């Protein structure tokens, strides 16, 4: 009986290991690498930057999440003409954020800004959820 249980267990483990292999069925490929290094900042650093009216904050969340509240003064840029909403001065300090560390929309937008020639681009990787959890102020539309 012990041998049968061991055999069944080994069979189940081997099958589940095969079925749970990573990937989408295609060949493995290296992760995407950006040509620019991105400066990630903490919530505390973002809060300090928020005191400076020259620093621009950009919210890359969905419209629904934006409606629940955003960093005071932030510009919602999850729109098709988002590039038109960026400042003319390419040296302007800019902070991009989205939902949280699992969301990469702010990373993508920040890298796009760097590709456009902006030189002072940052990303607050904890996003609006981290901002709210830290009891930081929000505005609502």
Keywords:
141 residues; alpha/beta; five-stranded parallel sheet; 5 helices; 12% strand
List strands and helices in order, with pairings:
Layout: H1 2-19, E1 39-41, H2 43-50, E2 56-59, H3 63-67, E3 75-76, E4 94-97, H4 105-115, E5 121-124, H5 127-133
Quick structural overview:
It is built from 5 helices and 5 strands, in the order αβαβαββαβα. It has helices at residues 2-19, 43-50, 63-67, 105-115, 127-133, and strands at residues 39-41, 56-59, 75-76, 94-97, 121-124.
Unreliable residue stretches: 7-22
Strand content: 5-15%
The overall pLDDT average reads: 85
Strand element count? 5
Q: What's the shape?
A: globular
With helices defined by DSSP (H or I, 4 residues minimum), what is the helix count? 5
Report how far the terminal alpha carbons are from each other.
67 Å
- Describe the sheet with the most strands: 5 strands, parallel
SS-based class: alpha/beta
Series of H and E elements: HEHEHEEHEH
Radius of gyration over C-alpha positions, nearest whole angstrom: 22 Å
For the biggest β-sheet, the strand order reads: 1-5-4-2-3
> Helix amount, in percent?
25-40%
What does this 3D model show about the protein?
By secondary structure, the chain is of the alpha/beta class. About 35% of the residues lie in helices and about 10% in strands. A five-stranded parallel sheet has the order 1-5-4-2-3. The longest helix is centred in the N-terminal third of the chain and has 18 residues, at about 1-20. The N and C termini lie far apart (about 65 Å).
């Amino acid at each position: 009986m012990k041998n049968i249980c061991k055999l069944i267990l080994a069979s189940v483990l081997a099958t589940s290991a095969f079925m749970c292999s990573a990937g989408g069925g295609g060949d493995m490929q290296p992760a995407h690498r950006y040509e620019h290094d991105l400066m990630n900042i903490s919530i505390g650093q973002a809060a300090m930057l928020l005191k400076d009216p020259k620093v621009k904050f950009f919210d890359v969340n969905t419209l629904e999440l934006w409606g629940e509240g955003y960093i005071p003064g932030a510009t919602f840029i999850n729109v098709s003409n988002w590039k038109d909403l960026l400042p003319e001065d390419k040296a302007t300090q800019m902070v991009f954020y989205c939902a949280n560390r699992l969301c990469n929309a702010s990373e993508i937008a920040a890298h796009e800004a760097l590709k456009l020639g902006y030189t002072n681009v940052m990303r607050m990787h904890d996003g609006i959820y981290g901002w709210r959890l830290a009891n930081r102020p929000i505005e609502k539309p």
